């Protein structure tokens, strides 16, 4: 050790340290308990609100057959959910759409993030390609669907391609934004420590971009699901989009809504997983 | 930037000769540094003070080689280690990486130089201990106070045993008490190892209490208005490395007042 001796008086920065452990854990417990109570209250209010809305819906469509036909009825929707669950189609369709969504989500985000981060390496290239990225980003994905079916066929591949296309530009833009908004002083710091460009990239740019990358991930879960369902609308033999399209063309609106409930559940589940992943990969973020 | 291969004992560690810097974007010329020369020897602490906006940070960037001067030269007399001269930097912003723990932040430069053996880890831990951060090695910066974060940044700077330290207002964002403690620690760690420190600051009391020499700059384009050799003898029990004792030493306030006057003259002339 070659740093000599420092004062003992300064070795314990007084006003800077936390209060004694016991007091800290006591207040910590109180804070946690209050937070848990608030969370419970929010959840109960949400459930109550949902129950009221469903009750009103049920009441409004109970006596009115035409309204029940047009808007479905919670009990009828539940009935379809039970039938679809018992014949297995609910789980198969959810599984298929989930697979398409997850695969498209992963491919699109890996592709977009790698490209977006790589653009950090060359400001020249990023300036050259930026109008093309904007142009690609402005294409409504649904307009690509017929072509995608022609290129990739009517099977799984075309749905994955649709999901990927819905994701890739957003992932590229968010990760590029993350990479280019790194504090230039931090880059200078890396330089003064003798870092080479790839070291600056690995040790600074990539971790610093994680926050923006995850913002993109949360956004693109929904986009991937939309892409997969559009793909299924165009041409498919299974999946939630297929079920919705088929029930819709037969005017079985409660069945449409039952499949929609499954779609919402799928979206919530995928968002939950991304949130967990974010928390796991960014342990330094106390706000997550 | 001239870098001599081998360090010799008596030559100054850092020598600035007739430095000049003019920013020119084709339409407007902004002369920031007029003509500045000074030497920094081993074991010496030199503070540079000047009116705000006089180009102190530009000067640091020129000295550190981030900017090429438009006139004059900077000569270094420090050894190289891993392609880099043994110079340490510290800024007002701690620039800690939030995804790294305190110790991992200190280890950053060691990792870049691929020196991550047990010895380096022990050194990082020992430095944190010496700076009063015992038990905080595995904390993330978001859980540390401003003063503690700046101590981590100081440890990150010192872990390479730099011969010369370049500090740009590193304590400006800290509260007074924290500032005095970390200033004292810095001075102790610098003097005990015979390092050289160039401290750029706008805080005259900080400059007088820490430095052996204070250079007062004029407004832009900046030149050296005056140089003071600080000679403080803080009492019998006093310690020159104790920033509270230094501030109570006879002569301290005379230096501060004189430097204030020097800076005031510059302001009148600029107005």
Structure in words:
The complex is a heterodimer of chains A (288) and B (271). Chain A is 80% helix and 0% strand. Chain A has 11 helices and no strands. By secondary structure, chain A is mainly α. Chain A has a domain at 89-281: Orthogonal Bundle (MetI-like fold), CATH 1.10.3720. Chain B is of the alpha/beta class and 271 residues long. Chain B has 9 helices and 12 strands. In chain B, α5 (146-158) packs parallel to α6 (176-192) and α7 crosses α9. Mean pLDDT of chain B is 84; it is low at 1-8. The chains are: A mainly alpha (288), B alpha/beta (271). The interface between A and B is large, with 37 and 49 residues.
Describe how the helices and strands are arranged.
The complex is a heterodimer of chains A (288) and B (271).
Chain A: H1 21-62, H2 65-71, H3 74-86, H4 89-118, H5 123-137, H6 141-152, H7 156-180, H8 184-192, H9 197-234, H10 240-249, H11 253-281
Helix pairs in contact in A: 3-11, 4-7, 4-9, 4-10, 4-11, 6-7, 6-9, 7-9, 9-10, 9-11, 10-11
Chain B: E1 2-3, E2 14-24, E3 29-40, E4 45-49, H1 56-64, E5 71-76, E6 80-81, E7 84-85, E8 87-91, H2 102-106, H3 108-112, H4 118-130, H5 146-158, E9 164-168, H6 176-192, E10 196-201, H7 204-210, E11 213-217, E12 222-229, H8 243-248, H9 252-270
Parallel strand pairs in B: 1-5, 3-12, 4-10, 4-11, 8-9, 9-10
Antiparallel strand pairs in B: 2-3, 2-5, 6-7, 11-12
Helix pairs in contact in B: 5-6, 7-9
